[in-house]
Specification:
- With about 400 residues, the protein is an alpha/beta fold.
- It folds into 2 domains: about 1-195 and about 380-400, Glycogen Phosphorylase B (Rossmann fold), CATH 3.40.50; about 220-380, Glycogen Phosphorylase B (Rossmann fold), CATH 3.40.50.2000.
- About 45% of the residues lie in helices and about 15% in strands.
- It has 14 helices and 13 strands.
- Strands 3-2-1-4-5-6-7 form a 7-stranded parallel beta sheet, sandwiched between helices. The protein has a 6-stranded parallel beta sheet with strand order 10-9-8-11-12-13, with helices on both faces.
- It is globular and about 65 Å long.
- The relative contact order is 0.12.
């Protein structure tokens, strides 16, 4: 099939370091690897150069002015400008889709849902070809809660249009499916497809990368953005207590984010200098080696009422064959079988986290057993598996159409 992948979110560059960017590249590459021709229409190409088996077309806003009547609130000029650019980009991508189809027909539109775009479903209806929409988060609810959503009624209308108009919605977790169905999506057309991993790059035989300070240490590792809902505060307090048990511990934090300054302040205040390594953002192709250096990998999420994530780091930890200690919450509980492919603790339970890590430090046999089982189990969460499932669904729609 000829597939056009649409990403209208300017905050997610195709060649970027954040998890959403990795998701785009991995799925696109997997679709191409199983035999499909993919073109990416994106609001942001990004500065990187990761291998991608697809043409990437960066689409800019067409610059046409928006009517003042399109805005429901006054006194929010910055929000207006930002949303106006997003709506302009969505319009430009729609025009690009229609022009491209007139020149050379394609079979499927696959859109990564973004807050201000109904591009895929609108093009799909005009061209009479299927549109699959991937939903990774309750974006409108997130924006309302954390960023004081402007033009809330407009965002709600776009969300409703997308959820009702897509031929299939592909939710990244059960919790995201519940959100979509609760806002009008047809439950029979809303499927769960979790995130994945590339087992050709993330595997137990990968060579370790050993940052300075980790030699001879028992290394705990975390990968991701340093945001409040990732449990960094829980992890640092657990690490402080672990050091009281043994000076052998070292903490390797791979990533960056809003809590970077807080982490550095905590390290200084708790006098943990020399026991923690912060790498900052690293290219995705360095992650396998850094994860390999970890003796135990952690996903210490706090207690959240709406844990809807499908954590990339979890699948990558497991694929490299690391023993994992993670919070018993959401999809994590579905992926990891406690005592078989990892250890689960109550979200936010610092002492349970400490005890589980101590147990693994003192039991190398258990570490090996968990790691081997994890690397085997995670193969069913590969990007290739996701790509084959997506295209099987799409091919069925094409035949129906």
């Amino acid at each position: 099939m000829k597939i056009v992948y649409v990403s209208a979110d300017r905050g997610i560059p195709v060649f970027g370091n954040k998890g959403a960017s990795v998701h785009i590249r991995e799925l696109v590459n997997a679709l191409a690897a199983v035999g499909h021709e993919v073109t990416v229409l994106s609001a942001s190409r990004g500065p990187g150069s990761s291998p991608l088996m697809a043409q990437v077309v960066e689409v800019q806003a067409d610059g046409s002015p928006l009517s003042p009547d399109a805005f429901l609130f006054v006194g929010q000029e910055n929000a207006r400008a930002k949303i106006g650019r997003s709506l302009g980009i969505s319009s430009a991508i729609l025009n690009c889709l229609l022009r491209s189809y007139a020149q050379e027909k394609f079979d499927l539109i696959y859109e990564r849902y973004s807050l201000w775009s109904a591009t895929g479903v609108r093009a799909s209806q005009e061209l009479r070809i299927p549109c699959l929409v991937e939903v990774n988060a309750p974006l409108r609810e997130e924006e309302q809660r954390y960023r004081d959503l402007a033009l809330a009624a407009d965002a709600e209308a776009i969300e409703a249009e997308v959820f009702a108009g897509a031929d299939l919605l592909l939710a990244v977790s059960k919790e995201v499916k519940v959100y979509a169905v609760g806002r009008g999506a047809d439950p029979d057309r809303t499927l769960v497809i979790p995130n994945g991993v590339d087992p050709e790059r993330f595997h137990p035989a990968v060579a370790p990368e050993c940052p300075e300070g980790t030699a001879g240490k028992f290394v705990l590792g975390f990968v991701g953005s340093f945001k409040a809902w990732h449990g960094i505060e829980v992890l640092l307090e657990a690490f402080r207590r672990l050091l009281a048990h043994s000076p052998a511990y070292h903490l390797l934090l791979v990533g960056d984010g809003p809590l970077r300054g807080w982490i550095e302040g905590y390290v200084q205040g708790a006098r943990l200098g020399g026991t923690i390594t912060l790498t900052g953002w690293v290219p995705h192709d360095r992650l396998p080696g850094l994860i390999q250096r970890m003796d135990v990998a952690v996903a210490p999420y706090p207690l959240l009422d709406d844990f809807y994530f499908s954590p990339l780091k979890l699948f990558e930890y497991l694929a490299v064959g690391k023993p994992v200690v993670a919070s018993r919450i959401g999809q994590i509980h579905e992926v990891i079988e406690h005592g078989s492919t990892g250890l689960l603790v109550r979200p936010g339970a610092i002492e349970e986290l400490v005890e589980s890590i101590e147990r693994l430090r003192h039991d190398p046999r258990l570490r090996r057993t968990l790691g081997v089982a994890a690397s085997r189990e995670v193969r069913r969460y590969s990007w290739e598996h996701n790509a084959r499932r997506v295209t099987a669904l799409a091919e069925a729609l094409v035949k129906e159409g």
